[in-house]
UniProtKB/TrEMBL annotation:
The chain crosses the membrane at residues 26-44, 56-75, 96-115, 135-157, 169-187, 199-219. It comes from the Bacteria. InterPro entries: FAD-bd_8, FAD-bd_FR_type, Fe3_Rdtase_TM_dom, FNR_nucleotide-bd, MRET, OxRdtase_FAD/NAD-bd, Riboflavin_synthase-like_b-brl. This is Oxidoreductase. Its cofactor is FAD. Residues 224-324 form the FAD-binding FR-type domain. Coiled coil: none annotated. Its main location: membrane.
Length: 452
């Protein structure tokens, strides 16, 4: 279905990079590079020995420790970073930093073992040190945990594991970090060489662990204590879709924005342990928050049975899929499947002229369509329902191919494009936009992947 309203005439605006993402990325790079340089300085100040293998091993261990601290910062879910980069970008960094830890710690063990190896070989030397020197056994346990986590995080293994199993194994990383730090305190020559080095490492670890404590524990507890979230209503939207309205105190002070999501935990005896990520399906209005869930799994299917008055523990808001990153006066919103929920919220908040492409296989699957139609009429937006199978070919080629997108939205190069939907659809749209010459800083897509 399409509204007949036409875009108002607007002067062309020059493209510009959003400063928020640039600032956040620059901040992370500066933090990492400055600390790497200082770690190298402390290593040299502590004295470099004549054994090159041991020197390489020590330096690899120090870089591995720095990467661990940086990893904690990435998973801390700090609002300043999350709202500028988004969970998916932070998770991507988390993955690459994780493999950096994996390989630096392999290098640390291998270089140290071969550098100290006597006539009996490196393995015998590792066994000897583990039985005779304080902190070595803890380091080996930490190393083994990191190796297991790294192995199960490889794509071929990750695809074969249930998310809950992978997540449970991943949590052992925190134990490994604690053991690695205790090893560094016990035998790290650079750590103990000077008051400056000791103060630096204690300060770095305190900052990293403090970030996790604040972002993952203190902020969620404070927000839930302050806002007292409860279920206000449960409204069926379709045979397998339900909207849940959440009320609370001072919701106008929560800082949530359209396009963001929360981790929702309904505090009942059967569900208190289970947290589900759902986007806001309506722009926050200070009175209530709304999520809309489709029965795709056990967790989301059970939400329709939640009773009014149930306490809710909500973590968030999370995500950078917001108008904070809009660079152009007008926008194109592309939604697919349950990805319509944050798009519907964005349509309510976003400024300028808006075109919405809503991709579904069958018009009967178009959740929240009436709400979208009403919002489109009220805002003077254009709503187009793009239907058909993935093999459907229009007169302009594939449904979400570059030619068809250009036909549906002729001025797409002059719009910010917000995309939310299944991974395949999102990738196809981004590829088409690239072919159409839409600048990358105008393309906004967020996949709801959580770094642990």
């Amino acid at each position: 279905m399409t509204t007949t309203l036409q875009p108002p005439a607007r002067p062309a605006a020059a493209g510009r990079a959003t400063p928020h993402k640039v600032l956040a990325k620059a901040g992370l790079y500066v933090f990492l590079l400055a600390n790497a340089a200082f770690v190298t300085y402390l290593f040299n100040a502590a004295g470099v020995g004549s054994n090159k293998l041991i020197n390489f091993g020590r330096l690899a261990g120090l870089y591995g420790a720095l990467a661990m601290a940086f990893q904690l910062l990435l998973v801390a879910r700090l609002p300043w970073l999350d709202r500028r980069l988004g969970m998916d970008k932070l998770t991507s960094w988390h993955r690459w930093v994780g493999f950096t830890i994996f390989f630096t710690l392999i290098g640390h063990l291998v270089f140290i073992a071969f550098g100290n190896a006597g006539a009996d070989g490196p393995i015998a030397e590792v066994v000897r040190q583990a039985t005779e020197l304080e902190g070595i056994l803890r380091a080996l346990v930490a190393w083994a945990i990191i190796m297991v986590v790294g192995a199960v995080s490889a794509r071929f293994a990750r695809r074969r594991l249930a998310y809950e199993t992978w997540h449970f194994i991943h949590l052992y990383t925190y134990i490994a970090i604690f053991l690695a730090f205790s090893h560094q305190v016990a035998v790290g020559s650079t750590f103990r060489k000077s008051a400056l080095a000791t103060g630096y490492w204690w300060g770095l670890w305190a900052f990293a662990l403090g970030s996790v404590l604040i972002g993952r524990v203190v902020l969620p507890l404070y927000r839930n204590w302050r806002h007292q979230f409860r279920v206000a209503a449960v409204v069926p939207e379709a045979h397998n879709v339900v909207s849940v309205y959440i009320e609370g105190k001072d919701l106008d002070q929560l800082g949530a924005r359209a396009g963001q999501f929360f981790l929702w935990r309904f505090v009942t005896k059967d569900r208190w342990w289970q947290a589900n990520p759902f986007s806001l399906s309506a722009a926050p209005n200070g009175k209530y928050l709304r999520l809309t869930a489709k029965a795709l799994g056990t967790g989301s299917a059970d939400i329709r049975n939640v009773k009014v008055g149930t306490r809710v523990f909500a973590e968030g808001p999370y995500g950078a899929f917001t108008t904070m990153h809009q660079t152009r006066p007008n926008a194109l919103l592309v939604a697919g499947g349950v990805g319509v929920t944050p798009v519907r919220a964005l349509l309510e908040e976003i400024k300028g002229h808006v075109v919405v492409l809503y991709r579904v296989s069958d018009p009967r699957e178009a959740v929240l369509l009436r709400e979208l139609e009403g919002l489109a009429r009220a805002k003077g937006a254009v709503l187009r329902l793009v239907t058909g199978s993935s093999k459907t070919i229009t007169a302009n080629g594939p449904l979400l191919g570059p030619e068809n997108i250009a036909a549906l939205v002729p001025d797409v190069q002059d719009r910010d494009v917000f995309i939310c939907g299944p991974g395949g659809m999102t990738d196809a749209v981004i590829t088409s936009l690239d072919e159409l010459g839409v600048p990358s800083n105008q393309i906004h897509a967020e996949r709801f992947a959580l770094a642990n």
